[in-house]
Amino acid sequence: MVDDRKVAELFRDAASDAPPPSFDVEDVLAASGRARARQRAAVLSGSALGIVVLVGGVVVGTNVLNGAGDSESGSAGVAAEQPSTTGSKMTPYGLPKGGNPQESVPTQSPKQGGDESGDVGPRTGSTLRGCEKVDRELAVALAGELPATPSGRNAGNLRCEQGARSAGFQVTVDGKLGQVSVLLMPDQPSDTRPWTGARPHAEHAQRAASGGRTVVVLSEPPSGGTEAPYADRLGRIAAGIAGKF
């Protein structure tokens, strides 16, 4: 039989012949510390790279937005430098700013002594030489202020001071044909009425315009009549026209 004691001694002798371990607990702890340090370094490097990428994206986006803003500002500056087509006092049709008529001006064939524009030629036999032609600008302004569409355009029978401008419309009220005229006087009229040729029972209203000028709106009743058309509205009509001049 094998002696147990000898077997035990053999095993003990074999174990004593094994080489000593190449590391101990301190070596394990040191290696673990180095591994953790490398891991932290990798994490920090990744975070730093992410921050750099983020900052770069913000800078690029800001530059793009600033470039767009500069482009818009430049476009606005160029637009501001363009000459305004509405800055002049007169429109291409000879109307003051804001003077668009509410009603279109009726056209009519040229009268004797007039031209193709419908302006009436000079009349003779009067001491006042103004208001001999229809002023298109005044006609448009008057048409825009009348309560109803006028029946026809003419210069009326008025004579006024030299340098004045005028226009007139025939109007039909209650089936009766009357006349409403507007005069743009170069200055304030004197106590004497600055026109002649109006029918009896005519009514008028006047309002101050720019540059010391005066707008006078005159309403004449039908021939043989006594009631002037729109007599109660002449003040408002004159004020509306004066605001355009």
What does this structure look like?
- The chain is an alpha+beta fold.
- It has 2 domains: 4-81; 136-242, no CATH class.
- The protein has helices at residues 4-16, 25-81, 136-145, 234-242; strands spanning 152-154, 159-160, 165-173, 176-185, 195-196, 203-208, 214-220.
- Strands 1-3-4-7-6 form a 5-stranded antiparallel β-sheet, with helices on one face. It has a two-stranded antiparallel sheet with strand order 2-5.
- Helix 3 (136-145) packs across helix 4 (234-242).
What is the N-to-C succession of helices and strands? HHHEEEEEEEH
What is the gyration radius calculated from CA atoms? Answer: 50 Å
- How do the strands line up in the largest sheet? 1-3-4-7-6
What is the overall silhouette?
rod-shaped
User: What portion of the residues fall into strands of 2 or more residues?
Assistant: 15-25%
Bin the helical content.
Answer: 25-40%
* Beginning-to-end CA distance, first to last residue: 143 Å
Task: Count every beta strand, where a strand is a DSSP E run of 2 or more residues.
Answer: 7
Tally of contiguous helical segments: 4
Largest sheet entry? 5 strands, antiparallel
Alpha-beta content class: alpha+beta
Uncertain parts: 73-127
Q: pLDDT average, as an integer? A: 67
Whole-number total of structural domains: 2
Can I get a quick summary?
This protein has 4 helices and 7 strands.
Write the layout of secondary structure elements.
Layout: H1 4-16, H2 25-81, H3 136-145, E1 152-154, E2 159-160, E3 165-173, E4 176-185, E5 195-196, E6 203-208, E7 214-220, H4 234-242
Helix pairs in contact: 3-4
